[in-house]
Structure formats: C-alpha cells, structure tokens
Amino acid sequence: MDCRQLAVAVGLEPVSAKVEGVRSKAKRLAARGWLAEEKPGMFRLVVGRGGGS
C-alpha cells in the first residue's frame, strides 16, 4: 500500500502535506518492525506482528 492510500485509509485527505506526514510515520514504524517497506514508498504489515498490550 502506498502512502497516499494509507492516508486515505486513516481518514486523511490525500494532499501532499498529509501524505508526507503519513510517509514519515510509516518509515518510523518500518524501522521498529511493525511495517515492511517493500520498495520506496510501498508498505505492508509484517506477518505475525500482533497488536497485543
């Protein structure tokens, strides 16, 4: 899923400023192992990573 699709999925307008914010957060989540960046700007959930407390 690209960052524009992610922005729309979380209820944001697909304008440049919002998409760049989503991209920054997605890169941070990828660095922490929650998302995988398949190629620049394309992210997916990591299999087996649950959202427990």
Radius of gyration: 11 Å
What kind of assembly state do the chains in view correspond to?
single chain
The succession of helices and strands, N to C, reads HHEE
Low-confidence stretches: none
| Beta-strand residue fraction | 15-25%
User: Averaged pLDDT, please?
Assistant: 89
Globular, elongated, flat, extended or rod-shaped: what is the shape? globular
Question: Could you describe the largest sheet, including whether it forms a barrel?
Answer: 2 strands, antiparallel
Please report the total strand number as a whole number. 2
Q: What structural class do helix, strand and pairing data support?
A: alpha+beta
Helix content: 40-55%
Strand order of the largest sheet: 1-2
Distance between the termini: 26 Å
Q: Helical element count? A: 2
What is the secondary structure topology, with strand pairs?
Blueprint: H1 3-9, H2 16-31, E1 35-39, E2 42-45
Antiparallel strand pairs: 1-2
Provide an overview of this structure.
43% of the residues lie in helices and 17% in strands. It has two helices and two strands. It has helices spanning 3-9, 16-31, and strands spanning 35-39, 42-45.
Properties at a glance:
53 residues; alpha+beta; two-stranded antiparallel sheet; 2 helices
Brief digest:
This protein has two helices and two strands.
